[in-house]
Design goal:
alpha/beta, single chain, 41% helix, globular, two-stranded antiparallel sheet
Length: 152
């Protein structure tokens, strides 16, 4: 059991399913930190309208917080203390590693796509990048593993 688990999430339902297995990982007096990393916004022009980078970031931050707060509510119902954070960063892996260190996390529990071959070459692996950047234990959960754990 872990005292403090960092759970990086993105917009996918698969990543959010990691929350369902936390009850078997978080100590009774432990905590889960739900983290969503968003990329820096870019100011864009649409005809006569300008959408500022900060406005785009705030919109993304708001959408992410809605999801994180919903998941936090589910954890609270399962008697798991949780907090939520949305961070703007150009590097998801660096942000996750830095946040885990800053929060003194015992574990980073994250969804992994389990890409192989050309998909891994072109898209890379955030989980592998995080493992290279941190001394905190990283546990990646794939779709099959999450399905198996959620039925137990």
């Amino acid at each position: 059991m872990y005292q403090k688990i960092l759970v990086p999430l993105d917009d996918s339902e698969d990543s959010r399913s990691v929350v369902k297995v936390l009850s078997g990982l978080v100590a009774d007096d432990g905590e889960a930190i739900l983290l969503h990393v968003i990329p820096p916004g870019k100011t864009r022009e649409h005809g006569n309208f300008i959408v500022r980078a900060s406005e785009m970031e705030e919109e993304q931050r708001g959408r992410a917080l809605v999801q994180l707060n919903r998941l936090s509510g589910e954890l609270n119902e399962a008697s798991i203390k949780s907090t939520c954070a949305v961070v703007v960063s150009p590097s998801v892996a660096d942000c996750i590693a830095d946040y885990a260190s800053r929060e003194s996390a015992d574990l980073i529990a994250m969804y992994t796509h389990g890409r192989t071959g050309l998909a891994k070459l072109f898209k890379g692996s955030v989980t592998a990048d995080v493992k290279r950047r941190t001394t905190v234990e990283v546990q990646g959960f794939g779709s099959a593993e999450l399905a198996e754990l959620s039925t137990k």
